[in-house]
């Protein structure tokens, strides 16, 4: 932007470099401008043109204090300044700076004496050699627009274009003043390569302005909206970031992408308002004030804490004219303003836009005050406003007689005439009326049958200023004839059709357009149909267009509203009628909004619009405070979207309305006005929406601090082939070096998209959170907290669930959580997978079945509670990149074979904790096209039983179709579709033929003890259908199996327990709508409230000792369903078939009786494809390798050990010594600490129950000195509970000492291994069989941690332990590490010199900086 440099009179002579003509290298004349005329490109542009990119390192700064331009010279091209690549990609213009780090040098301010002035630089000369021979009109407009922004700052920008570039006449003038990438030079002590004490490292900013017609496409490519990056260096400069909330920016300033507002405030304080004043003499103190502000800014070296450039709308003040109007108008507009103020006030803390409201009279009240429904004062205000918000107009008192004493004088104006005049004056040619249910549970309020209107959602787009309402007309004449004329021109139809195309294209997935006319009768309709067809097919060829006659459409709207889903495009009169017909579908006129626009809105050119609810003035209830304000509030949301360029703010208002109106069935608040069956007042609805929207707005504030990541469409040269899982890790990795790949074994720091937890795990997390000082969460809108494990309506009076609920609720309120799921609303994973997880995201959860999110292509990893607190607070965690095993599905499964049978077959063939152990599992192959997302869910969910860290399906069209059904764009727009490279390296690859999968049963006590259902002859005490593994599709299929059984004449036997527990209230509601709840109840099943139920056996549902159960859950370990219970696993369909006779039964006969078309209709035909997906490549934040290396990035902590013969050293004072308690393979966390003793009040409390059922004598033997656990493979498998290592830490081994000394095993479950290190429990991996021959029960073992040796039976054994794990263990665990390093703890644990981390952070606790002291090294990332 601006930066002070010495005048040439003060510079050393060698700093004036010769770039042109005969100027001497020691020329010290400060008044000779470097003009464009001297540019050799001017005289010989064609020969100067080239396509190669200059080397940044070869650039040198030239220029003078009083010159008009700063210029750089390149050794081979003296006048080369900035090159801009222009090339087409998928028919979209994409511009990127070829390089951005021009090495401008800021002279050391401190070297100047106080009396020496410093002059501000005035302008920049830019050379634009295009990569093609022709610069398009669009490109020229884009560049010219960026130049406009610089001119707003007072920076002169001149352009030179090579003669080879053909400039269209209409754009050549615009390109005269054009883009440059300016630089703010940040003080970065010690960073100068030449050893200067000054400020040699520059901080890139980019200035965004009006980009022209293609700006929206540029933003999609993130070319200018994100920091530009150098292709030559292969790295992306980072954004400035403030540790504290930014101060506000005056609205006269243009948007500065990436510039800390504190810098702008400083410049403003120097009287630099509106336009920077250059060539003024600034004192040394004034210059140093700027430098101090720069020095106070923090510049992160990684993405997670970068600041995202604000949206274009977020740096200015908008003017909104409010026309409250008549009747209930003033009441409802007041609530809309209240909500808008809540949003903008919250967003202002992150530099958000402001809205100034200006109220004027309109309609009936204006007639009474001025005699006109649209007074001149109101007209002038509307013409200058960015948008207009209208309440309602009209009433029975208007029109009034012109003379109350003389009726012959007729009537005065009608209020509605003001509305027509306003539309015509502002050319508001397009009226948009969405027909949707603001909350899903409002379908019961519709006058139409609920099954007809469910999922009906369309937008009526009505041409508003043409047609019969504005045509020639004649009132009744003497002959008793009157007429109205319907007229339309091609231009009028074209612009409304074009808007329909834009609205349909912007939807995800794109909407169908339904054009309504009467082409069989009317000439205007035939013109309408021809022009609409022409515009859509020519300009929007990928959209679907369907024509309807108006009478047919009106019938369809009530017979089957879903048939019109999309954009209903129609002319004025037809639109008037159809939109009113559509307005009754939701059941209340107070619900729906509308917008009237004067142009096609775009990010570069928002449309001026009039926004109003569809209802009238309702004089019968005016003043009573009972009017429904939702339609007006949603109209305000449309105003943000179309006129104020605030799409995300519009989205959160709609989400808040949904939260307030929805019943508890969908985790809503159920607050409604009288017209919707509630009792809330107008103001109570507004207040509730404010309470709901503020947390969402706070989430946007945090999102704005995250640097955006451009979409990378091609694999960079030199990057190794990666698996799908590796790509997600690489994309989220912080500080990789070019070309930006990861490989198994790498220790990486990663940013995290979501964290999730249940009330049970939050209890443990809350202790960690409290121990950390309750520091606040990274993103209040990215933590999913569900109360599901220990709750049931039958036991809500008990102390334990009450305590857990209270702890969760208190935190949700404290942290302003957006996604707190009330008790028994959803199992943790169910609705998160259905409504939140997106392809390409990284999810960390405090539950071993977090991997369920892999069903939609998210890498979802379960960890311990304390482990999850860290990304919750910091937004980051650490990962050792796992190996990946490929499970390749081929062929189609038989009907009725879903995900549960498929994953059981995988376990049958490959077994548990074998090929998948400690690896990520990728499900691939052509068989995926036959698997719904619900079928994929079971396979992803049970990847943990398979032994994997995660189970992930590559996102595809089926995934996109599933995601597209979500209501809010906020939960589908972040999807990233990666694909494993052809040369990706898998640890193993196995093929599963789905056509050979049949109904299977996993016998107690292991999920891999799988046999064909016909091999099982077993009577049952109980049948359970439920748990997170059992998705909606499974529950529907099982219900249809029961229905088929009844058709066959089967009758359920009287004995046995039967229970079905759907995964969420929405699923239960759907089963009820489908009539399947009645089927379940008729079959003897009791309907449970959504929760873990029998799958965990710790709440109301507990299987009895010795009871034999068949369950569709995911685990059948000992005591899983209850102490002494015997659990066997099968699909929901198999359990349903077995429930009739309470004996294991093959469901095939009943499955074959099911009507498959009906089944697909019940599933909402999940096979429907969404729009084509875009496969992209990981685009991590890349950093140059610096002086400090990352310790143990590739340390193998599971390597083979080596036995060494020799005498055990005599001095064992520093060794860890104890006697062995020996365990076998696959000791799970249920065995270590049974669930009913969780979460425990302390480690010591947990320790009193360690191995209580599995080895009751364990605790007593620890007290006798048997305090080193030696186990086989898979120690700590099963649930993710961090209470397992805490229990081992809490076992009392003496009156004054707690905790076993160490665990030695051949391998650990992934989550448990992390928990050990995080809880400071020493866990070592040793694979040498010789050791296990010697380390029998009671054998003595000594551990030399520093020497990486274990001694036993006269032999020594070498082990590996990563530096990361050692530092966590010896540092006291993650809490102690956090207390020292705060948000930098993972970088400290992985860095070669942990103390340098704090030094590079400026000695502070949290956000990384680039302002360390001069002697400090910088982190490698």
Short characterization:
It is built from 44 helices and 55 strands. By secondary structure, it is α/β, with parallel strands linked by helices.
Provide the fold topology.
Layout: E1 4-5, H1 40-43, H2 45-48, E2 59-63, E3 70-74, E4 84-89, E5 92-97, E6 118-120, E7 123-127, H3 137-152, E8 156-160, H4 169-172, E9 183-185, E10 202-204, E11 206-207, H5 215-221, E12 256-257, H6 261-269, E13 281-282, H7 284-296, E14 317-325, H8 329-348, E15 354-359, H9 364-370, H10 376-384, E16 387-392, H11 415-425, E17 430-435, H12 450-453, E18 458-463, E19 473-474, E20 483-484, H13 490-506, E21 513-517, H14 523-539, E22 545-549, H15 550-559, E23 566-570, H16 572-583, E24 593-597, E25 609-613, H17 630-642, H18 647-661, H19 682-703, H20 724-732, E26 734-736, E27 747-751, E28 754-758, H21 759-771, E29 783-786, H22 799-814, E30 819-821, H23 828-835, E31 842-845, E32 859-862, H24 865-874, E33 876-880, E34 884-890, H25 899-910, E35 920-924, H26 933-941, H27 943-946, E36 950-953, H28 957-964, E37 988-993, E38 1000-1002, E39 1010-1012, E40 1022-1026, H29 1032-1048, E41 1057-1061, H30 1065-1073, H31 1076-1082, E42 1086-1087, E43 1108-1111, E44 1126-1130, H32 1132-1139, H33 1148-1151, H34 1156-1162, E45 1181-1182, E46 1203-1205, ...
Parallel strand pairs: 7-8, 14-15, 14-16, 16-25, 18-23, 21-22, 21-23, 26-45, 28-29, 28-31, 29-30, 31-32, 34-35, 34-37, 35-36, 40-41, 40-43, 41-42, 43-44, 47-48, 48-51, 51-52
Antiparallel strand pairs: 1-6, 2-3, 4-5, 6-13, 9-10, 11-12, 17-18, 17-24, 19-20, 24-25, 27-33, 38-39, 38-44, 46-55, 47-53, 49-50, 53-54, 54-55
């Amino acid at each position: 932007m601006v930066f002070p440099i010495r005048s040439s009179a003060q510079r050393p002579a060698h700093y004036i470099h010769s770039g042109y003509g005969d100027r001497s290298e020691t020329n010290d004349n400060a008044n000779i401008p470097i003009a464009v005329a001297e540019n050799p490109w001017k005289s010989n542009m064609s020969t100067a043109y080239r396509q190669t990119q200059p080397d940044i390192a070869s650039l040198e700064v030239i220029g003078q204090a009083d010159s008009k331009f700063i210029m750089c010279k390149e050794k081979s091209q003296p006048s080369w300044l900035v090159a801009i690549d222009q090339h087409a990609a998928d028919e979209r213009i994409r511009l990127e700076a070829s390089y951005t780090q021009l090495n401008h040098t800021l002279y050391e301010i401190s070297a100047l004496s106080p009396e020496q002035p410093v002059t501000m630089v005035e302008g920049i000369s830019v050379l634009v050699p295009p990569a093609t021979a022709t610069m398009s009109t669009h490109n020229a407009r884009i560049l010219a627009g960026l130049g406009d922004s610089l001119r707003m700052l007072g920076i002169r920008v001149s352009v030179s274009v090579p003669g080879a570039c053909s400039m269209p006449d209409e754009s050549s003038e615009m390109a005269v003043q054009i883009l440059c990438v300016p630089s703010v030079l940040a003080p970065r002590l010690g960073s100068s390569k030449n050893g200067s004490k000054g400020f040699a490292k520059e901080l890139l900013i980019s200035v965004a302005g009006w980009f022209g017609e293609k700006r929206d496409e540029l933003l999609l490519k993130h070319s200018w909206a994100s920091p530009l990056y150098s292709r030559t260096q292969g790295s992306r400069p980072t954004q400035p970031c403030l540790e504290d909330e930014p101060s506000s920016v005056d609205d006269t300033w243009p948007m500065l992408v990436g510039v800390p507002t504190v810098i702008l405030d400083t410049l403003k304080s120097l009287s630099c308002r509106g336009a920077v004043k250059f060539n003024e003499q600034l004192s040394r103190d004034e210059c140093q004030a700027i430098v101090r502000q720069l020095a106070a800014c923090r510049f992160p070296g990684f993405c997670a804490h970068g600041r995202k450039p604000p949206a274009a709308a977020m740096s200015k003040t908008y003017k909104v004219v409010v026309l409250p109007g008549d009747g209930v108008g003033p009441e409802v507009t007041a609530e809309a303003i209240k909500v808008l103020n809540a949003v903008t006030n919250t967003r202002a803390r992150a530099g958000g836009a402001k809205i100034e409201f200006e109220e004027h009279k309109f309609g009936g009240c204006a007639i009474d005050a001025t005699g006109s429904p649209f007074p001149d004062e109101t007209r002038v205000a509307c013409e200058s406003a960015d948008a207009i918000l209208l309440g309602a107009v009209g009433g029975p008192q208007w029109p009034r007689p012109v003379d109350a004493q003389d009726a012959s004088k007729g009537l005065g104006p009608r209020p509605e005439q003001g509305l027509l005049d306003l539309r015509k004056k502002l050319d508001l040619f397009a009226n948009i009326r969405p027909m949707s249910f603001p909350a899903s549970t409002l379908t019961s309020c519709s006058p139409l049958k609920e099954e007809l209107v469910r999922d009906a959602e369309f937008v009526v787009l009505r041409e508003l200023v043409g047609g019969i309402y504005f045509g020639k007309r004649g009132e009744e004449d003497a002959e008793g004839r009157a007429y109205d004329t319907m007229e339309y021109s091609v231009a009028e139809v074209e612009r409304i059709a074009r808007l329909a195309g834009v609205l349909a294209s912007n939807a995800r997935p794109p909407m169908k357009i339904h054009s309504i006319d009467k082409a069989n009768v009317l000439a205007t309709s035939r013109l309408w149909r021809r022009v609409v067809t022409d515009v859509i097919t020519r300009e929007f060829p990928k959209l679907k267009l369907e024509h309807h006659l108006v009478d047919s459409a009106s019938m369809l709207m009530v017979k089957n509203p879903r048939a019109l889903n999309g954009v209903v495009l129609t002319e004025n009169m037809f639109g008037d009628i159809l939109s009113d017909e559509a307005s009754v579908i939701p059941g209340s006129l107070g619900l729906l909004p509308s917008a009237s626009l004067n142009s096609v809105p775009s990010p570069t050119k928002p449309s001026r619009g009039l926004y109003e609810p569809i209802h009238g003035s309702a004089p019968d209830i005016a003043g009573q405070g009972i009017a429904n304000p939702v339609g007006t509030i949603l109209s305000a949301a449309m105003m943000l979207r179309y006129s104020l360029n605030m799409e995300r703010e519009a989205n959160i208002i709609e989400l808040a309305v949904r939260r307030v109106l929805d019943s508890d069935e969908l985790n809503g608040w159920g607050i409604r006005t009288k017209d919707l069956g509630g009792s809330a007042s107008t103001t109570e609805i507004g207040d509730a929406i404010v309470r709901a929207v503020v947390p969402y707005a706070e989430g946007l504030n945090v999102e704005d601090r995250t640097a955006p990541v451009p979409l990378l469409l091609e694999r960079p040269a030199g990057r190794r082939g990666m698996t799908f899982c590796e790509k997600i890790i690489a994309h989220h990795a912080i500080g990789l070096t070019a070309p930006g790949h990861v490989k198994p074994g790498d220790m990486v720091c990663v940013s995290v998209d979501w964290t999730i937890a249940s009330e049970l795990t939050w209890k443990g997390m809350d202790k960690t959170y409290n121990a950390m000082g309750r520091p606040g969460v990274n993103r209040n809108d990215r933590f999913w907290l569900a109360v599901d494990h220990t709750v049931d309506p039958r036991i809500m009076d008990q102390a334990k669930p009450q305590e857990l609920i209270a702890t969760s609720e208190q935190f949700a309120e404290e942290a302003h959580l957006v996604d707190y799921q009330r008790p028994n609303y959803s199992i943790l994973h169910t609705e998160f997978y259905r409504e939140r997880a997106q392809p390409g995201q990284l999810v960390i959860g405090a539950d071993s079945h977090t991997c369920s999110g892999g069903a939609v292509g998210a890498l979802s990893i379960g960890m311990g509670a304390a482990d999850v607190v860290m990304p919750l607070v910091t937004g980051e965690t650490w990962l050792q990149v796992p190996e990946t095993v490929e499970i390749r599905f081929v062929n189609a499964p038989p009907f009725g074979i879903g995900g549960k049978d498929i994953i059981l077959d995988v376990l049958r063939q490959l077994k548990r904790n074998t090929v998948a152990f400690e690896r990520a599992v990728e499900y691939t192959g052509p068989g995926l096209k036959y698997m719904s997302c619900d079928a994929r869910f079971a396979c992803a969910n049970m990847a943990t039983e398979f032994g994997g860290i995660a189970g992930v399906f590559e996102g595809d069209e089926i995934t996109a179709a599933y995601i597209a059904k979500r209501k809010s764009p906020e939960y589908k727009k972040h999807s990233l579709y990666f694909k494993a490279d052809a040369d990706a390296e898998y640890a193993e690859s196995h093929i599963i033929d789905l056509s050979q999968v049949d109904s299977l049963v996993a016998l107690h006590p292991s999920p891999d003890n799988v046999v064909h259902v016909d091999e099982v002859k077993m009577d049952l005490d109980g049948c359970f259908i439920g748990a997170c593994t059992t998705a909606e599709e499974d529950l529907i299929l099982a219900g249809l199996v029961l229905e088929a059984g009844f058709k066959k004449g089967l009758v359920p036997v009287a004995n046995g327990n039967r229970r079905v527990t759907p995964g969420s209230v929405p699923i239960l509601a759907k089963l009820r709508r489908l009539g399947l709840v009645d089927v379940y109840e008729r079959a003897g099943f009791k309907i449970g409230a959504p929760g873990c139920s029998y799958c965990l056996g710790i709440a109301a549902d507990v299987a009895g000792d010795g009871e034999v159960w068949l369950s569709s859950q995911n685990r059948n370990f000992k005591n899983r369903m209850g102490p002494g219970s015997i659990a066997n696993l099968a699909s929901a369909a198999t359990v349903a078939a077995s429930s009739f006779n309470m004996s294991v039964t093959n469901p095939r006969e009943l499955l074959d009786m099911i009507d498959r078309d009906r089944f697909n209709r019940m599933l909402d035909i999940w096979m429907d494809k969404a729009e084509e997906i875009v496969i992209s490549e990981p685009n991590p934040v890349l950093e140059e390798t610096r002086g400090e290396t990352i310790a143990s990035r590739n340390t193998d902590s599971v390597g083979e050990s080596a036995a060494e013969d020799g005498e055990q050293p005599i001095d064992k004072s520093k060794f860890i010594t104890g006697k062995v308690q020996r365990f076998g393979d696959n000791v799970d966390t249920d065995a270590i600490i049974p669930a009913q003793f969780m979460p425990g009040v302390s480690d010591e409390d947990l320790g009193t129950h360690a191995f209580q059922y599995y080895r009751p004598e364990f605790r007593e033997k620890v007290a006798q000195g048997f305090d080193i656990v030696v186990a086989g493979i898979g120690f700590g498998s099963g649930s993710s509970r961090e209470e397992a290592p805490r229990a081992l830490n809490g076992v009392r081994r003496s009156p004054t000492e707690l905790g076993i000394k160490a665990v030695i095993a051949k391998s650990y479950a992934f989550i448990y291994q992390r928990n050990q290190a995080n809880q400071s429990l020493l866990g070592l991996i040793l694979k040498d069989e010789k050791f296990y021959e010697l380390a029998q029960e009671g054998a003595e073992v000594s551990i030399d941690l520093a020497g990486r040796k274990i001694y036993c039976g006269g032999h020594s054994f070498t082990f590996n332990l990563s530096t990361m794990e050692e530092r966590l263990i010896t540092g006291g665990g993650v809490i102690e590490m956090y207390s020292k390093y705060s948000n930098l703890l993972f970088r400290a644990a992985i860095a070669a010199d942990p103390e340098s981390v704090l030094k590079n952070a400026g000695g502070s606790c949290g956000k990384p900086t680039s302002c360390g002291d001069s002697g400090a090294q910088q982190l490698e990332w």
